[in-house]
Amino acid sequence: MDARFTAEQDEIRRTLRELLHKRCGAEELRAAVDTPAGHDPALWTTLAEQLGLPGLALPEAYGGVGCSVTELALACEETGRALAPSPLLATTVLAAPLLLALGTEEQRSNLLPRLASGALTATLAVPGACLATALGLTGDNHGDWAGGGRAGGVQAKRSEGGTWRLYGQVDQVLDGHSAGLLVVAAHSGGFSRSRTLLFLVRAGADGLVRMRQTSLDATRPQARLQLRYVDAELLGREDADVLSVLSALARVGDTAATVLAAEAVGAADRVLERTVEYVKQREQFGRAIGSFQAVKHRLADLYVQVQAARSAAYYAAWATAASDERVGPLALAQALEALRATASEGVQLHGGIGFTWEHEAHLYFKRAAGDELLFGPVHRLRAYAAEEARLFGGGEVAV
Q: Cα separation of 269 and 354, whole Å?
C-alpha cells in the first residue's frame, strides 16, 4: 500500500477546499439549509460543472470522471469540513452505484450521464429506520428489513397491464423531498413468497407525496414519502436474482461507510482547528486558557483521536478501491466517535458562546449525532463488524 497522495488527488482536495471556503461560509450554510431544497442549487451546479463531483467515481463511459472511491472520499473530507449541504451523498454514494451495479444497459445509459452531470439527483428510500441494516452496516441485510406481508413497509404489485405499482410509506429519506429519482426498496410476492427488489420512481409520479421532515442535522435534509399505488420501474432485469440486490446493497454500504468516515474526519479536524484557535484567544486569570496544562491535555487527546480516525478512513478508502476487504463500517465507527468527542469538547472549551444557536459548534455535534441515528450507532457498527469477523464466536478468527 502506497500511502502517498497523487498530484491529482491533492489537486482535488485543494480546489474543493478553496471553493467551499468562498461559497460555503457560516452565513451561506445557514441560508442554504433554510431553502426549500435544503441546499444551494447554485453551489451544486458549480460542484458538478467545474469539478465533476457527482460523477467522480462513475465510469467515463457513462459521463463520469472515472476515479475511484479514494478520490470520492478525499473530496467528501472537504465537504465534511464545511458541512456543505448537497445531494452528493444521496446521489453519488447511495443511488448511482446501485444503478451501475443492477441497472439494465438502457437504464444506465439513460440515467447515469444525467446523474454524473448533476442535472438529475437521486436517493435511496428504505422503509422504516432500517437504512443501516439494508446497507449491511449494523446487521444482516438478508432479513425482512424492507417490510412485507404483515410487516408493512412498501409493497410492490404488478398491475393487469404488467407494470409495477408501489404502496406504502418511507421515512428518513435523505433529500427525498428534492431528488428527481427515487430508488425504492419494496417487497413483492405477498406474505408467503416475498422478496426485496429495488424500483425506480420519478419525481412527480401520480400518487407520490413527499414531505420534508425536521431533522436533527439540518445539513442533511430528510423527507417522508407516501406511495399510493405509484407506477414504478423495476431496477434491473425481471429475472434478476434477489441475492444480487442484497449483495449490491452491502457493497454500497461499505462504500458509503468509507465516504461518511472521511466526511466525519474532515468535520472533526475543522472543529479541533477552530477550538485550538479559540483557546489561544480566550483568557482567564490573565492568561489564555490554551496555556493551561489541563486544556493542553484535552486537546492533545482529541488530536490523537482525530489522526487515528483519519488513518482508518484513508485505509478504508484504499481497501474499498483496491481490495475486497470490508473495513468501512469500522472506520465509520472510529470517525463518528472522534467527531462526537471533538465537537463536544469544542462546545465546552468555547465556554458560553459554544452553547449558543449562533455559533457553529452545535452543527458539528448534530452532524455526528445525526449520522449515528442514520448509519449507526457506533457500538452496533463495531459489534456487527466483530460478529462478521467471528472474534467472539468461538470459531476461527477471520484473517
A: 17
Angle value at C-alpha 379, between 374 and 381, nearest 5 degrees = 60
Residue 151 pLDDT > 60: no
Query: What is the C-alpha to C-alpha distance for residues 240 and 98, in angstroms, rounded to an integer?
Result: 14
Q: Is the peptide bond before 377 cis (omega within 30 degrees of 0)?
A: yes
What DSSP state is assigned to residue 92? I
Write the pLDDT tens digit of every residue in 60-101: 999 999 999 999 999 999 999 999 999 999 999 999 999 999
CA distances from 146 to 66, 158, 245, 399 (A): 32, 18, 12, 32
Please count the residues of the chain: 399
By three-state DSSP, how is residue 157 classified? Answer: strand
Q: How far apart are CA 111 and CA 91, in angstroms?
A: 11
82's CB contacts (< 8 A; 6+ apart) are 20, 21, 24, 29, 270
**What residue type is assigned to position 292 of the chain?**
F
Q: What is the grid cell recorded at 314?
A: 484513508
Q: Three-state DSSP class for 38?
A: coil
Name the DSSP letter for residue 327: -
* Residues 6+ positions from 48 with CB-CB distance below 8 Å: 54, 55, 117, 118, 119
Contacts of 93 (CB under 8 A, 6+ apart): 72, 76, 252, 255, 256, 259
Cell representation of residue 157: 404489485
Reference 185, options 139, 140, 138, 242; nearest CA is 242
What is the three-class DSSP state of 296?
A: helix
Of 86, 93, 84, the C-alpha closest to 57 is: 93
pLDDT > 70 in the chain, percent: 94
E strand segments, 235-312: 283-284, 287-288
Radius of gyration over alpha carbons of the chain, in Å?
Answer: 21
